Amino acid sequence: MTSASFTRRGVLVATPVVLATGALAACSTGGSSGGSGSDGGGESGGTLTIYSTGEEMSFDPASSQNLAITTLGLTARRLTAWKTAAGAPTELIPDLATDVGTASDDGATWTFTLQEGLQFEDGTPITAATIKYGLERSFASELTGGLTYHKVLLEGGADYSGPFSGEHLDSIEAPDDLTLVFHLNRPYGDFGWIASTPAFAPVPEDSGEPETYATEPVTSGPYRLESYAPGSRAVLVRNENWDPDTDEARTGGPDRIEFALAQDASVVAQSIIADRTDAQASFLSSFVPTAQLVQAQNDPNVGDRLVTSGPGALEYLALNTESEALQDVAVRRAIQYAVDKQAYLTAKGGEISGEYATTLITPGIAGREEYSLYADDPAGDPDEATRLLEEAGAGELDLRLVITDDQTGAAEAIQQGLARAGITVTIQPLDENAYSSEVTAGDGTGYDLVLSSWQPDVPSPNANLTPLFDSSQIGGGNYNLARFEDPEVDEAILEASSTVDPDEAHAKWAAVDRQILEQSPVVPLIYSKNSFLHGSGVENFVIGEFPAYPNYLTVTLNA
Amino acid sequence: MIPALQRVARSLGVLLVVVGLTFAIFYVAPIDPALQMCGKPCSPEDLEAARGFMGFDQPWWVQLATFLGAILTGRTFGSADVVVECAAPCLGYSFQLHQSVTELVADRFPVSFSIAIGAVALQALVGIAAGALAARRQGGLLDRAVTGVSVIAASAPAFVVGLLVVVVFALRLGLLPSGGYVPFSEDPLQWARHLVLPWATLAFLNGAIYARLVRSSMIEQLGLDYVRTARASGLPERRIDRYALRNLALPLTTLIALDIGALLGGTVITERIFGQPGLGALLLDATSTADLPVIVGTTLVGSLLIVLANLGADLARPLLDRRLAAGGGAPRGPAARTVPSDQNPQETAS
After folding, report:
1. pTM of structure
2. Which residue, among A315, A262, A384, has the nearest Cα to A529 in the 3D structure?
3. Do A260 and B44 touch (CB under 8 A)?
């Protein structure tokens, strides 16, 4: 999903929002002000149009990588949900469950109790068995592609291939209609957050062929799918069996939500900037394209209809620790000083595009500690870099920087920064797919440096650090792009992720953050900000501290 | 009829080569469809399972044979209890969209068809008229205007023209919708209203080629002996024009046929800018989500349409030119276009 100050790679891969359904993807807003419109309350009724550049949509939770607060959240409730508010960290709140889960067995067993009286759109009850079935579906070969954090955690998950052959996963117990017990293969403190990912949505067992569910879902959220024309439009209307009193996460404001698909972001942005009648009750789900961003900033009529998030996803320079030139930690540390983050941010569009980053855990995530291990000046310290390189006896460094082809300006900023310390950088722009095959799926021989970005799938430090630095996440389509392998770090990650008490876990994660950065596998560059546009009829367009996307579930229209 | 059969056989040969080359995309393209479907995070077991399910764990010749066979007889992915059926003619299956590529193409084809028919009609009409008028008044104001505009149109990038058209006619003046598609069967008037801007944009970009072709050929024709003789014998000018234009029928038919073929295959940029869910938009989206089966399938269909259009034009030639029907030599003309696109280098058809 490809845009503004964010790399397309970032949108498509590193953020959870994207994949096959463009409409779900790449929609983020945020306002430094936390969004426009009043908080809470808001009118009910009207038709909200969400413009999307994507062609197709899928409403199947099993294959979705949606954030908890975007498209799929409108139709599919999960065990837990997120509460976002401007200027406040995102909170984990109960959704279908009565609480956010109770850990026992040191965190290796998690129990949830469902609220009573919950119903699907067709009036059938939402039971523990339907959630178990929904989760089991996510193991089936034909329904892959979603968020799979639960798959490696649930006992027996590795050998399970879905419910369609009549087999069930015993580690998910549904002893009665309202109780769910999950048996994990190890203690895991963040299971409450994991329970907010799409696969934890209920699916009735008689929901038809698995492959048709994507366009014929049985919904549990405030809306049901009335019609869907690929490449054109998806229409959501009220689900009369959704009870707002049972739902803390959704306000169900508009009577009707229409996704206008296959839109050109520039054309839509122009419409919204002009606040045309047909664009007033609408927003653009993707980032505002650069040209329109400048236009919107300078147009007094736009005002707070342009909403920019606070600092969000981490954009970073990964240093391939397997590359011969970068195996020495002293050389990697020198690069921390040589990089010119100021030039990088300028290349990305300046202040509206991000804030300087010095840590790995991103802002808005509970447990993050602000610190700076290396150069305090964002422009870097080339003298210190040169000194460190000499000390390490590094000799001539000629490094290959692989980027997606929309990142040339930013890559040149890196190139010039490193040149100040005598490091030669050769930039290799690749098309997105080639980048993916060379970098995430490659064997690591194709690059020394890589520009990438990462937005966690859930607001937990675990989701910041494990995917990027655990040694199990090297290659095979995963995101440890520095190919960083440190047994002590692996152990520290395991220890922190096993900790159930939030305060204790946060302290451990903050320590892991430093522990990793001391080994300098990546250079944190900026925390990027996303800008979004909405029409004058839209209210409660709120971006919390995490994620840097608007909360679709609470948007309302004014009367 | 023998030459006609030869042409059909040659087209089939071309198609087979196209199928082979298209299939090679699976191997040449830096995309692993299994990886796309592996989920996040992606475990090695999941990746292997996805490869096996999609059939990518087979040797390439087995995959090619399966691919070709599927076009004729359909195909089943997976085994045992978990299967996905893809009915014949199966051009592949999109595991991202949970739909067969044939169905996806069939869904999108009416849109590209609507765009192509209107655009080709408009561009041929406007282009031919402008070219003929310019040739008639060679060196005059109108001629210079037509030549100038056609140079601009032929060199303007489609995305710039498209965006300008949207901004002026839809956003500023509010005359027409900025995008969207309404099926003809639902509301013919709205169907046309939503298509006027894409038609006009394509006609502007592509009509230039017609105008230039007709202008230069007409000037050539009007300088020939038969025209002088006709004039000398007192034939009205309008009648002379008709004769001259008739001699352009052959190259123009070829041009129109190729344009139809190319536009039917989808216009990537025009469809995207005007929010038209046609084959071009499908291809563009598949490219951005690395949905390889869809990329391969739409490319194949696009090529098929161009081959068919070429064949159609070839077969129509003898009907348009009696000399050919009588087995005479091939006519020489500016019709031999080798690049089957919708004319503008920036707006390539799939």
Report:
1. 0.82
2. A315
3. no
